[in-house]
Amino acid sequence: MITGKNYIGNTLSAKGTKTYTTFNPQLNQENSISFVEATTKEIDLAVQLATNAYPQFSGLSGTRKAEFLNAIADEILALDDLLIKTYCSESGLPEGRAIGERGRTVGQLRSFAEMVKEGSWVEASIDTALPDRTPVPKPDLRKMLIPLGPVVVFGASNFPLAYSTAGGDTAAALAAGCPVIVKSHPMHAGTGELVASAIIKAAAKTKMPNGVFSNLNSSGIEVGVSLVKHPGVKAVGFTGSIRGGRALFDLASQRKEPIPVFAEMGSVNPVVILPEAAKKRGETLANTYASSITLGSGQFCTNPGLLLGIKGDALTAFIKNLSDAIVKIEPSCMLHPNIIGAYENNKQKAVSQSGLQVVADFGAGVQSNYARQTVTTVEGKTFLENTTLHQEVFGPYSIVVQCKDKNQLEQIVAHLEGQLTGTIIAEEDELKEYKEIVSALQNRVGRLIYNGVPTGVEVCPSMQHGGPYPASTDSRFTAVGIHSVKRWVRPISYQDWPDSQLPDALKNSNPLGISRLVNNEKTNRKL
Amino acid sequence: MITGKNYIGNTLSAKGTKTYTTFNPQLNQENSISFVEATTKEIDLAVQLATNAYPQFSGLSGTRKAEFLNAIADEILALDDLLIKTYCSESGLPEGRAIGERGRTVGQLRSFAEMVKEGSWVEASIDTALPDRTPVPKPDLRKMLIPLGPVVVFGASNFPLAYSTAGGDTAAALAAGCPVIVKSHPMHAGTGELVASAIIKAAAKTKMPNGVFSNLNSSGIEVGVSLVKHPGVKAVGFTGSIRGGRALFDLASQRKEPIPVFAEMGSVNPVVILPEAAKKRGETLANTYASSITLGSGQFCTNPGLLLGIKGDALTAFIKNLSDAIVKIEPSCMLHPNIIGAYENNKQKAVSQSGLQVVADFGAGVQSNYARQTVTTVEGKTFLENTTLHQEVFGPYSIVVQCKDKNQLEQIVAHLEGQLTGTIIAEEDELKEYKEIVSALQNRVGRLIYNGVPTGVEVCPSMQHGGPYPASTDSRFTAVGIHSVKRWVRPISYQDWPDSQLPDALKNSNPLGISRLVNNEKTNRKL
Predict the structure, then answer these.
(1) How many CB atoms are located within 10 Å of the residue A432 CB?
(2) If you ran DSSP here, which 8-state letter would residue A370 be given?
(3) CB count in 10 Å sphere of residue A324
(4) For a tag site, which of A208, A388, B235, B277 has the least CB within 10 Å?
């Protein structure tokens, strides 16, 4: 049952007076449940409980944390149809997508559980003493990763499950040993509360300290701002717009004690189509990209919003084929009237720029909150000179840039802002011929794709999801995959510490049987 | 020969009109060579050359980068006596220290050379494709670390070699594949130029691209500010004061494209002396700490500036013994009149606080620029209430806080700012009895020492040098040891990339023979 209340630790709480509802974009109407925003006192209490929970939670064994993470996955599945129905009613997304995203969410939780249970992720490193070394003895030094402290997570509007309440950021932070406070996304507050209730149930079942998790409702920016400025908060995870992410980054940097913010923000995910590939596979490519651009109404951070090619018959044919294919696709519902409003505004802003030509537009006769997909094209020179055209239009929109030659293409790629992904569509021989372009693209992106589409972010250790600013606020970390835990931990060294008092990961006997760097050699052996 | 000029890439350049000299604190006089500050044009050119050098340098093999790093070490040694004499004349530090620090510098360069030659540091990770997976095929994904781009390094006044021109930050950044621009420290500009000449010679001998290294003279803040704000600069390393480090962090965070700043800043390095240990080993401890506090005139970032104990006969005796021991130590020369001026000012500010008692002071009759070591003591309550007493007094100064009980001691530890190190002096049984204090201290520090002194920072993989703010601006990284390379790199994923076009580290045949994570298993095998 959805109560509309906050979870302040284990306790349902609704002390505030400000309320809001979620919206069903398919029915074009407000949902009925009223959500109560968290008050300043509730925020303080959530942070205090998280701070109190930290010493105990951060010291738990990997096995205990794995129990918790697996129990969260179980409890999410136990929400069953109620979760799926609530998800759909708050996002306009189809049931298949809800089920798929739930699978991804549960899969992420279980893969972090496996990681902490195995235990080698703490990067244990041991350098034993050399008491007889001259001129000074070498001390015994042992290093491992420990959690930073309470983490605040801002969920994404476009992933109500996998990048929200119990999504990648939360799973990684809990795996690290950090208590988590979620600033619930107002567009899917009911989905958020259900998932929060699953986490709270799992915490009770596995005997986690109260405060290990809180879920705060909020329709505006105040709750988020208070959390990021709160001295008890030690790190922030965010998925959303550049404006939102940058605002949080600025707040966190200006604190007396600055804290890390990992914000995964916008991206136009440039796709470079090289001439031979355009010639040989133009038609297939056009169909593939028509699907990728419109997938999930274009509401993916990896949506291909910028296609770059060299002017000529092959590119002209590709544009024609893409236009023909994309208008045949049925429009789909966007997440919220605000999202479709922003889509139409941003598209209008782009389209009104001088030199831009609309080559495909679904046209009229579309249901409320359904997005009309659009493709535009522009000359390379115009694109280079007008950075408005470089901005993301979040939704099923893409611009095809027709460069006059290879040099102009390279120049455009080198001048792009940081991106989550970059794609090269090429015949294998062309990769060598255009190696400067490949190299320039590599310097702007977190993930480089060959002959594919950027949509579809595999969850696996080799995935990098993040990239140079503004794709993310710190390109040195990933938001997806088990290595995303590194955002929430720091190394600590123990010098000459008695073996019995060391954490298990660093003890001589290696009771966890983990892989460690011992005197520069990777080994699972005991000392 | 020292020219007083800048190295703008390979070229000695002195276009500016602003000049300055270094100072010999032992002789209490200016040195004769005049250094010419870098101009805006020279700064721009250095960044441009670094940007141009980046694509080539970042793509070099580990073997080639190792040649460069080892050649730098060789060329530094070849500077021989001139380097040692210049070092001493610009720092007032004794020859033994200069030789020791040169050894550390050369050792760091060689250990990074070994790391990049071996090659596994890039954390290669491979997840092979599952083309038949349903509902969607799994792509082939391969991830590794790549360099961020041009890095600016600000050297430390107190380590003219090991944390300056070719110190830890530079060695790590070059190992990563990042071109480096050093903002030369004005107090040891001659030492800096000599080391820069060694790097430039090594770059020429090993055929590195022009711009892989530049060295810019500067006596004020302008050159540093310009560098940190420059769009071509992608990361910053700094060692020095909290004020300086925070200013650079703020500048970097406020850029249109924010960049990471790793600043290793101040620390008082709290030492907790537990009652049994004070009772049993008080006298030995007093001697050990008298030496640690005065080592190198207290000019170490790990200098123990805060000793915490529980009021009683044992602590009273310890204070008496420490005071007796420390005044017997001969004062030594500080780095510069500005440093000793700041020492005397900060000490005066501390000593003038109400409730503070001076228990040891070397007194009069000290040579110019030689520091008079001082020990003070204060009640726990006074310390808790007056955060001025928590501030670092850079130099041979320490304050002994007498807590009324265990609770007050825990309260003080929990309220400390972030620290590079924390030390527990205890009998082994006491660690359990005082486990809340140990846990509170762990949350405030980067390195936890048992029954030792914080001075002496071993260079090895298990060293963590850094800590919660303001010990450093990002506790997730270390400034010492091979893992410090992680500050200057980011992961990139290649999706479905043709094997022949992948970097060697990710190729099926594993031509580098490095350790990789392949489908979740660590292995050196080829695919």
Answers:
(1) 11
(2) B
(3) 15
(4) A388
Q: What is the ipTM of this complex?
A: 0.96
> Among partner residues B141, B487, B496, which is closest to A451 by beta-carbon distance?
B496
What DSSP element (H or E) covers A12?
strand A11-13
Cβ-defined contact of A492 to B428 (cutoff 8 Å) = no
- Which pLDDT score is estimated for A43? 98
Give the domain range for residue B232. 6-20+30-265+477-487
Residue B252: which of B151, B165, B181, B320 has the closest Cα? B151
B264 is catalytic: yes
CA–CA dist A206, A212 (Å, integer)? 12
Is A380 in contact with A401 (CB distance < 8 Å)?
Answer: yes
State residue B23's pLDDT score: 98
Residue B337 has pLDDT above 90, yes or no: yes
In B371-484, where does DSSP find H-type helix? 380-385, 406-414, 428-433, 435-442
Query: What is the spatial distance between Cα B341 and Cα B335, in angstroms, rounded to a whole number?
Result: 11
Number of domains in chain A: 2
CATH number at residue A387: 3.40.309.10
Separation of alpha carbons B399 and B392, rounded Å:
10
How do residues B368-417 score in pLDDT, each as one tens digit? 999 999 999 999 999 999 999 999 999 999 999 999 999 999 999 999 99
The residue out of B405, B432, B450 marking a domain boundary is B450
In this structure, are residues B181 and B227 in contact, taking their beta carbons and an 8 Å threshold? yes
In a domain, A463, yes or no: no
What pLDDT was estimated at residue B191? 98
What are the structure tokens assigned to A353, written together? 């720029």
Label the pairing between strands B19-20 and B306-310: unpaired
Residue A484, token pair as written in the block: 């995303």
pLDDT in tens, B30-41: 999 999 999 999
DSSP annotation of A328 reads T
Q: CB-side exposure of B154: number of CA atoms within 13 Å?
A: 29
Q: Which residue out of B493, B518, B523 would a mutagenesis test of the A interface target, given it has the greatest number of A Cβ atoms within 10 Å?
A: B493
Q: Report d(CA A313, CA A308) in Å as an integer.
A: 14
